[in-house]
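#help-structures

NK: newbie question. if I give both the sequence and a SMILES, will the prediction place the ligand too? trying with flavin-adenine dinucleotide
OV: yes, paste both and it writes out the complex. here, I ran yours:
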Amino acid sequence: MTRTKKHIIVVGAGISGLTAAIELSSNPELEVTVIDKNGEIGGRARSFEWNGFHYDMGPSWYWMPEIFERFFKEHGEDLSKYFELLRLDPSYRVFFKQDRFDKPDDFEEALLKFESLQKGSSEFIRRFIRDAEFKYNAGMNTYVRTPADSMVEYFNFEVLSSFFKMDMFKSIDKEIRKGIQDEKLLQLLLFPILFLGAKPTETPALYSLMNYADLVLGTHYPKGGMIQLMNAFYQLALKKGVRFELNTELKRILAKDNNVYAIQTSKSELPCDGLIATGDYQHIDTHCLPQQYKQYDEQYWNSRKLAPSCLLFYLAIDKKLQGLLHHNLFFDTDFDAHSQSIYNLHTYPEQALFYVCVPSITDPSVAPMGKENVFILVPLSVEMSVDEAQERRLFEQIIHRIEAKTNQSIQEHILFKRSYNKDHFIEDYYSYKGNAYGLSNVISQTAFLKPKIKHKKLKNMFFAGQLSHPGPGLPPSLISGQLAAQLCKQKC
Ligand SMILES: Cc1cc2nc3c(=O)[nH]c(=O)nc-3n(C[C@H](O)[C@H](O)[C@H](O)COP(=O)(O)OP(=O)(O)OC[C@H]3O[C@@H](n4cnc5c(N)ncnc54)[C@H](O)[C@@H]3O)c2cc1C
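OV: that's the protein plus ligand as structure tokens.
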């Protein structure tokens, strides 16, 4: 059989793979197949169901909605037709040692509440957010939308003229502490940085763009759960003619003369004219490429600074819970001690900081009537082995702390509990060291210093996803899939 169209294979049906496939399919001369080792689409943003409870397995914070909407618009679609997007108000609740704080959605209202924590803070925060808005616009429209293959890409007027305002070399911690002394307010402003997988003292002030996303752009929720966003990408891909082969694992990449010509999967050999790999970069580079085409050695990977892994619990509760919102952050113990355990000591924290998501408070469709769907996340070091006794201790401690803070019994109302730890990340995604969110966003791992999108030798192979540029999170991973596909369209 002679093929009239060029065949491009995308490995991985997470957000970056789905985005790459849709972007590729805008070229009618390309035929696109997505394979994934798992049986469902979504990657880390998959979902599962238990007796009428619908659980999002990974992401729960829908931030930067404009990035998703823009992508759909570029492909002639209106994302709002796929699901109803709610804006949460309050955005989230933070439990401190003695009291709690609900962050209002409205920026001005939030500033007023911040004043109650530190008098005079609103003036500083207003200025800080003005700079953050600049960084968000320049960052999300310019910096992250170049393939970051080399420093030279950044030598243009637009980028250079904004470079010094981007604060790449100052830490966000230092920047915020210039105007904020109140401990609670510091934690509120530093919390979005936790998504970036490094200590605030090591995270460039550029990432105040996350504060802009939090305080100005708002926290959203797609009715039906985050999986609705993934389903929207999947539906769009199907509409564009993308083929899916699930339960199909990439085993070997077959290449000669600096070109990939086929892949060996767990089921068959698939010929191709181009390849975009969005599974975990380290796994594909180290285990699927022929020796002469491996790009990074063990020493390189071992020296990367990884974002934390996490311990997750999915619970079904047989009653409605009081005192919690959709998003809840438990900062009622020592912030620095937990941070030390993740980044320095590589131990289970004595008193963990944790996050509790109860989407059934906003959305009755994710749990049966009168019941609650609960997701708990504890960030942990990637550099330690799983210890089930420690996991049980943490779980008991967490339930006890939620009970104490919200004045209700929970333990005897748990109908179902599923735990998910770093070993599951390795088993399900071949995640390097069990990382949950890829590489830390420290300056030495930013832009062209990240593992490259474009393979250094193979002319028709590209990487995308959270371990490549621009980094972890749904919006950046989307952008990386789009960048890889744009390069692939040029080169294949
Ligand atoms: C617990 C958790 C909470 C998070 N919370 C948020 C949040 O609130 N907001 C947010 O924006 N982001 C969040 N993130 C980050 C976000 O989910 C990820 O950055 C993003 O989903 C990564 O997408 P990806 O396409 O790069 O990778 P993945 O989603 O991991 O997709 C890669 C796919 O490749 C497949 N694969 C791997 N190897 C192979 C192989 N050899 N053959 C075939 N298939 C293979 C995997 O099965 C997987 O489906 C969270 C992540 C986690 C884990």
